[in-house]
Amino acid sequence: MGKTFAEKILAKKAGLKEVVPGQIVTVKPEHLLTHDNTAAIIGKISADLDKYGVVDPNLSVIVIDHVVPASDEKTATNHKNIREFVKKFGIQNFFDAGEGICHQVIIEKGFAVPGTIVLGSDSHTCSYGALGVFSTGIDRTEAAALMLTGETWLKVPQSIKINLKGKFQPYVMAKDLILKIIGDIKADGANYCSVEFHGDIQNLTIDDRITIANMGIEMGAKAAVFPVDEIAEKYLDSIGVKKGSYEKIWTDPDAKYIQELEYDLTKLEPAVAKPHLVDNFAEIKEVEGIEIHQCLLGTCTNGRLSDLKVAANILKRKKIASSVRFLVLPASRSILSEAMNKGYIQTMVEAGAMVLPTGCGPCLGAHQGVLAPGERCLSTSNRNFKGRMGCKDAEIYLASPATVAASALYGKITNPRKEVG
Asked: Less packed terminus of the chain by CB within 10 Å, N or C?
């Protein structure tokens, strides 16, 4: 019987001929991601670190991104502790505040290599499945143990197959697709499953795939993965990960799934996730006209160059509504730089946008862009739980960059197709 992606890669990494869903395997991941929470993780094992050190200084990839620049003394102290840890133990892969959001940095810097396992102390580590990586989030205790031992256990997940047909119509984006999928499956519908994407993936850019994989956890998925095709190979080559240096692992044609779904991309409409759940799906026509007070464009979900380009094209030679604060949050320094070179940032600033540091900030309500009671934010981020942006009495709607940009012009949720004709 054929094997799924998860079964094949976990069997290989565990040194076994084959595995089955539910089986516990021991693996040695190629990399471990931690971010600002590195301070808390190393605090758990400070005595062990002093006695034994880290198992491998190349295992960890540490990115300071959640609260940058530091918002208070406690945060600044945590950042200082991380820098001292990096220096003391010779951690090779360290990216300080301002380099970007950890998930974008992992991808850009070539750590998300097809056929590898990357674990991270952040739930959106599943993003790297866009490049054929088995990537998933773990908790801080597991991360601490990994720093010391280099290995951990995983349970082999069951798998769900999602077949994609056709291509997006103008101003329908990958965010609309993943919100639709989560609305159908629900927030717990893929719990501890590996979700595989098949079909006409040649019609999805790498940016599209990252957006979709990033939100796999929002339906409970352990992993969300795409096969490595020519588009992925070309992207990997552009960042220095050469073809032939990695193994492309993908599912067998006769693999068995617990569920199979199909989506026709040509039939999708712009959409949102209404408060306070990511699976509270609605097409744009159901929510048009709802007043908003803040727009957030960016984050690890939709802060890439193509996202900024779409928004800039909509905002060009226009002004955002006086009642709206429009925040732009590029996912990395390199994206910010390229967006500046191409004029996207200038266009959005002229429209009235505020450009924030390349970090997580307002997405989790930790820093900059916190909402007030009674306010509504339309955001390209990945979560809209009550209190997510710092206020339990505010509301967050999730949408695509096109929808967010068009809505910013009017101070109310707006169909981007109407704005562009």
From this structure: C
